[in-house]
Design brief:
membrane, NH4_transpt_AmtB-like_dom, Ammonium_transpt, mainly alpha, transport, 414 residues, 16 helices, transmembrane
Length: 414
């Protein structure tokens, strides 16, 4: 065990923890003022539900020895998880710290998918959904990619969660949004407070440095490369997004800048420790362009109700990044991998990435639809007309974020 690596990952784990409350603020500023607390609560409650689920079953399903498809029950209830290292998974750091770092990934994934159904889904069915989602979708895919499962055996790469976190959460959010959207009016929601969104976006941006850099699990050249690539990618995604936005609208918006930053960060996530600096910029630049068109062209054309564009940024960006990893992966950057398409002209590495993406895509879509249908057969999951009109904050939580009416009365009185 190396104490410097332990301290390093301890700090990275805290940074990734910050991402979930940060994303709750990012989403909260984008919804109507009458639903801001409900939107924030979806992410904050996810931290509670994921912790319980991960400790009891999720971690064991993801990283237990098991077979090529699912982990076994050796680690259930965090048995054998303590200060000692695990030779296969955490040779440099305490196994319990590895478990916590991975739990933060699962938590932010749940928070991401909540953006697709913000203001549209009842709170308690959402809580039940994320409990089942962690067990039936996230944990198996995490095992396939990182826990010794069949995707890892195939040789597909996912440095920090492009497939495991972003594709699964983005696609699940999209399918759930489509199921809820049937019969509900689809309308473009105007953000009620972009300054809250800015604060949340900054917290997510900062947390992403721990998200990607910590995925090296040791403070070495790969960790530093992924740190630099993450900084470059944030700017690369914003740069391409703002160029396209200006060409299309003749405006440059704050929300566009933040969306581009997130698109670039998502796109580089699966490749951060595998590509050089210039190619990191190329991947992020492509991610910004693709995510912009998914949100502003494809979503508009097909009229699906991805409320806060969780799929448009995370699903689409994750797919772009995962596939381009096979194009640009470099043995010079990371000695544990083979060279990608641009270095050897062999399409094999790209095909492996495509196979992994397609299987995870199909599995996520089917399982999300099944879970959604089961919930719909038991209880209504879409918000009612009264909830849409009055607001979820007041009806579900008995609280308000703002008191405009009361302030106006006070102003008139004095």
């Amino acid at each position: 065990m190396k104490m410097d690596d332990t301290i390093f990952l301890f700090l990275c784990t805290l940074l990734v923890w910050v991402m979930t409350p940060g994303l709750s603020l990012f989403y909260g500023g984008l919804v109507q003022s009458k639903n801001v607390l409900n939107t924030v609560m979806q992410s904050m409650a996810a931290m509670i539900i994921v912790t319980f689920t991960w400790v009891t079953l999720g971690f064991s399903s993801s990283f237990g020895t098991g077979n090529a498809f699912i982990g076994n029950f050796d680690l259930i209830g965090l048995q054998h998880v303590g200060f000692a290292v695990n030779d296969q998974l955490s040779p440099h750091i305490p196994f319990a710290l590895f478990m916590l770092f991975q739990m933060m990934f699962c938590t932010i994934a749940v928070s991401i998918l909540s953006g697709s159904i913000a203001e549209r889904m009842k709170f308690f069915p959402f809580i039940i959904f994320i409990f089942l989602w962690v067990i039936l979708i996230y944990s198996p895919v995490a095992h396939w990619v990182w826990g010794g499962g069949w995707i890892q055996q195939l040789g597909a790469l996912d440095y920090a969660g492009g497939t495991v976190v972003h594709i699964t959460s983005g696609l699940s959010g999209l399918i759930l949004a489509i199921m809820i959207g049937n019969g509900k009016k689809i309308e473009k929601i105007q953000p009620h407070n972009l300054l809250i969104t800015l604060i949340g976006g900054i917290l997510v941006w900062i947390g992403w440095y721990g998200f990607n850099t910590g995925s090296a699990y040791t403070l070495n050249d790969v960790a530093l490369t992924s740190f630099v690539n993450t900084i470059i990618a944030a700017s690369g995604g914003a740069f391409s997004w703002l160029i396209i936005e200006y060409l299309m609208t003749k405006k440059i918006s704050l929300l566009g800048l933040l969306s581009g930053v997130l698109a670039g960060l998502v796109a580089i996530t699966p490749a951060a420790g595998y590509v050089n600096y210039f190619n990191a910029f190329v991947i992020a630049f492509a991610g910004g362009i693709v995510c912009y068109f998914v949100i502003n062209v494809i979503k508009v054309k097909y009229k699906y109700n991805d409320t806060l564009d969780a799929f448009g940024i995370h699903g689409a960006g994750g797919i772009v990044g995962a596939i381009l990893t096979g194009v640009f992966q470099s043995q010079h950057v990371n000695h544990d991998i083979s060279n990608g398409f641009i270095y050897n002209g062999d399409i094999h590495s790209v095909l492996i990435q495509v196979i992994a993406v397609l299987v995870v895509l199909c599995y996520t879509v089917v399982l999300t639809w099944i879970i959604g249908k089961i919930l719909q057969s038991i209880m209504p999951i879409a918000t009612t007309e009264e909830e849409d009109k009055t607001g979820l904050d007041q009806l579900v939580h008995g609280e308000k974020a703002y008191f405009y009416g009361e302030l106006n009365k006070l102003n008139k009185r004095y």
